[in-house]
Amino acid sequence: MSRGRSPAAFEEPQLPWREEDAGTLTLVRVVIAGGHGQVARRLERLLVTAGDTAVGIVRNPDHVDDVQAVGAHTLLCDLEATDLDALAAHLEGTDAVVFAAGAGPGSGIPRKRTVDRDASVLMADAAERAGVRRFVQISSMGAGAPPRPGTDETFAAYLRAKTEAEEDLRRRDLDWTVLRPGGLTNAPGRGRVRLATSVPRGQISRDDVAAVIVGLLDHARGIAQTLELVAGDTPIEQALEQL
Fold it and tell me: Which of 97, 156, 216, 221 is packed most tightly, with the most Cβ within 10 A?
């Protein structure tokens, strides 16, 4: 598989467990829904650099080159239009699925349901059909509770959609992890976080979110847990060990 040159804006988080821990799980193929997203491309690059195969699902043909530029394969598939049989066939031979798709800030309320909720449910259905047990869902801090009074109507719909997607995943016989990052930034990753079932609200670098996801996959950590993630003082490796 070709190795594309990483975009200069992406900092390279350190993954010390990849070098030191011979007992970690080496994944062969990871499929990322929402493969063109900012966290997704950072994740794809980390996986490829470590020798894994990353496959980014994109619906816009114009995004293929961006995903391939970080060394990942692409799967052109519209999760709002495909069916279960077709998607499950694409997941055959996959070791893990990461759901990183989102309707995006410019979308309306209907697409919060069809992408942030329905597409996650479809991916989980397809993972079960294809026999893929490991499933990491990127959610959002604020999900799991009613939106605060005064919350923008569209953002409230987003949080409800994420909450319903989480609830669906928890009912499944999968090795699932729900990850709720705080406010996302493009600051360089520090490699230090707060990662637990509940943390105070805060921000987190997209670099560090991607590095944490790699650690969750490598170590099979956080299974059957809903985890919140913000910047902190604990090295990522240590935060993973404490789960």
Answer: 97
pLDDT of residue 21: 53
Residues recognised as catalytic: 158
Q: How far is CA 30 from CA 5, 26, 75, 147, 170, in A?
A: 20, 11, 12, 32, 20
Helix extents (H) in the chain: 16-20, 38-49, 64-68, 84-90, 109-111, 118-130, 153-170, 206-219, 236-241
Nearest to 136 by CA among 239, 45, 212: 212
Tell me the C-alpha distance between 134 and 128, whole Å.
10
| Other CB atoms within 10 A of residue 62 CB | 8
Domains and CATH numbers, the chain: 22-241 (3.40.50.720)
End-to-end CA distance of the chain, in Å?
34
* pLDDT tens, residue by residue, 183-225: 999 999 999 999 999 999 999 999 999 999 999 998 889 999 9
Distance CA 207, CA 185 (A): 9
The first and second tokens of residue 75, run together, are 């799967």
Instruction: Tell me the C-alpha distance between 219 and 4, whole Å.
Output: 26
Mean pLDDT within 85-98: 97
| The two three-digit tokens of residue 110, written as one number | 């209907």
